[in-house]
């Protein structure tokens, strides 16, 4: 399975919108759009999971793809480094 980072998303994008974009390249297993914990507002990025080969094709095929006037950033997701982001002191 391949996890794909999708950045520079328009705040109006829904999981269904992203699923439809990636479905052209194969079966989309999951779509997760990231929201702010405190406000619930979209953060402008998310993750898509696909099988290995369709995922590679989607990454290659969606470079420079525009959604609602925004050019998406499409990359293979990297492992999250331990200690982030909850180690930062909170500002009140």
Structure report:
The protein is an alpha+beta fold. The protein has one domain (2-76): Alpha-Beta Plaits (2-Layer Sandwich), CATH 3.30.70.330. It has two helices and six strands; from the N terminus they run βαββαβββ. The strands form two sheets. It has a four-stranded antiparallel beta sheet, with helices on one face. The model has no long low-confidence stretch (mean pLDDT 90).
SSE layout and pairings?
Layout (H helix, E strand, L loop, with lengths): L1 E6 L7 H9 L4 E8 L6 E9 L1 H10 L4 E2 L2 E2 L1 E4 L16
Antiparallel strand pairs: 1-3, 1-6, 2-3, 4-5
The shape is globular
Main sheet record:
4 strands, antiparallel
Which runs of at least 5 residues are low in confidence (pLDDT < 50)? none
Level-2 CATH architecture? 2-Layer Sandwich
Briefly note the CATH topology name.
Alpha-Beta Plaits
DSSP helix fraction: 10-25%
Number of strands: 6
* Proportion of strand residues: 25-35%
Whole-number count of domains:
1
Query: What string, H for helix and E for strand, traces the elements in order?
Result: EHEEHEEE
What would you say about this model in short?
The protein is 21% helix and 34% strand.
């Amino acid at each position: 399975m391949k996890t794909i980072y999708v950045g520079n998303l328009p705040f109006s994008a829904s999981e269904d919108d992203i699923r439809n974009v990636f479905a052209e390249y194969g079966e989309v297993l999951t779509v997760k759009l990231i929201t702010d914990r405190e406000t619930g507002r979209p953060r402008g990025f998310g993750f898509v999971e696909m099988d290995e080969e369709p995922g590679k094709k989607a990454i290659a095929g969606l470079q420079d793809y525009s959604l609602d006037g925004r050019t998406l950033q499409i990359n293979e997701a990297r492992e999250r480094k331990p200690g982030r982001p909850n180690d930062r002191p909170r500002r009140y």
